[in-house]
Write a structure and sequence with these properties.
The chain has 112 residues and is mainly alpha-helical. It is 71% helix and 5% strand. It has a two-stranded antiparallel sheet with strand order 1-2. A hairpin with an 8-residue loop joins strand 1 and strand 2. The chain is elongated and about 80 Å long. The N and C termini lie far apart (56 Å).
């Protein structure tokens, strides 16, 4: 659960969400990730550290470059948690549909 807490803490920042959106397109170096933002490379690196600590990205060393990519396990963890909530919500809506159908059916009987 602590990874999930860290993941949602990381996702709470719009810059980090934007970084993840860019990494969803392809692997990128820190230099490439800095380009669209009006912040310094050290500031982006701090955001990347938060994302890495949360298990949402993976960095590798390639000479002097540090390419980053999405981390499948971290993304899957968040997706599983959201999927469980989605399933619960769908069950709640299904029960609500049943109650509304019952009410509609009962009202239809009373009008005859």
């Amino acid at each position: 659960m602590s990874n999930l807490d860290a993941a949602f803490l990381a996702l709470s920042d719009p810059t980090r969400r934007a970084i993840l959106a860019r990494l969803a397109l392809r692997e990128m170096t820190v230099t490439e990730l800095v380009e669209p933002f009006e912040m310094s490379q050290p500031a982006i690196s701090r955001h990347l550290k938060v994302l890495e600590d949360a298990g949402l990205i993976v960095k590798r060393v390639e000479g002097t470059k540090r390419p980053c990519r999405l981390a499948q396990d971290g993304i899957d963890c968040v997706e599983r948690w959201l999927g469980a909530l989605r399933s619960a919500l769908e069950r709640n809506y299904a029960r609500l549909d049943e109650v509304l159908a019952e009410i509609t059916h009962e009202k239809g009987k009373g009008m005859r």
